[in-house]
Design brief:
Elements (H helix, E strand, L loop, with lengths): L1 E10 L2 E7 L4 E5 L6 H13 L18 E10 L2 E10 L3 E6 L2 E2 L12 E4 L4 H5 L2 H15 L1 H22 L6 H41 L5 E6 L8 H14 L1 H7 L10 E6 L2 E2 H4 L2 H22 L4 E5 L7 H11 L5 E5 L13 E6 L2 E6 L6
Parallel strand pairs: 3-13, 3-14, 8-12, 12-13
Antiparallel strand pairs: 1-2, 1-4, 4-5, 5-6, 6-7, 9-10, 10-11, 14-15
Length: 372
Amino acid sequence: MHVQWLRCTHFRNYDTLEILFHPRMNLFLGNNAQGKTNILEALYCLSTTRSFRMVSEDELIQFDQTAMRLEAQLMDDHGSERVALEFKKGFGKTLYFEEKKQKRLSLILGKIPMVIFSPDDLYLVKGGPGLRRKYLDAVLWQRDLSYLADLQQYERVLKQRNALLKKKETFLEKEWQVWNRTLSQAGSRVIQRRQEVVQHLERIAEHALSELTGNQEQLTLRYLASISWNGSIDQTQQLFLEKLTQAQKEERMRQITLVGPHRDDVELILNGKSIKHFGSQGQQRTVALALKLAQLTLLGEQRSHPLVLFDDVMAELDEQRQAFFLAHLQKQGQTFLTGTSKQDFKKFLGDARVFKVDAGRVALENEGSNKN
């Protein structure tokens, strides 16, 4: 699958923008703060309905405007399809397929699989557990939307259960048992799938890290679950229920659910030590890149290659890592890269469609090779 063209209206610093993409390699060059990343962000928003940046949704709309629209033409082996996402202040988002309004935003999820590499990836290693949970969840739902259904069910029940905990009314024990049972059923399925995908990611990330470091580093991934997983959904659910019973008094006092996959984490261990606490910034960044490569590889094993968004990362890599990434990207599907210098991408400038980005204006500099 690839994106044929993208149209942005009142998005970020673009009043109107339309770009015809190369089916393989697209490169956006320009100084910082000119709008290069905004193009990748627009693609990511169409894929997930949200930004990969830590911003409020209103910031997606151009200054002094009240609404924005993103639209793209998708092409795969079955034909083409036009998708669009609108966002109006005070009214939320609306999704369209072939100009037909859709009832649920989640219908777009999985339709445009993609992986983003950005300077913020460092937080995947040194940030809080929520970032690593989101990483696992993104890998899982892009592979199989049934996981998204389990996760959404769990989050709905969790929200309702937390709302009940905040009430000062007397709890009805039978009603409470129903909530616990529903939470444990969906939560056990989430834990199972996360445990399984961590094992796959570890295998691929360890190999990627070995190539990036010349066999100098060894990586281990460990899923830290609040509920132990021993391979059985039934046993995990039973343990989940027991943990909820044990935590009941403290939960009512603190008015929040203290047990479940919403509190889990992934421990990243480099050469036998926690990289979050003992790794250098260079090691943390390399591990983050290895994790993103693992995500890219794993998604490509299950389905057609996902889109690759590579945002201003090349300048942070030494020559060896640059060569590794460029060689790896050329084996992937449609790729979108941003940078400030042609020198970082000289090995495939002739094959890529190259755009110059300056103050919200995008100009085509090189058409790119016809090879797919």
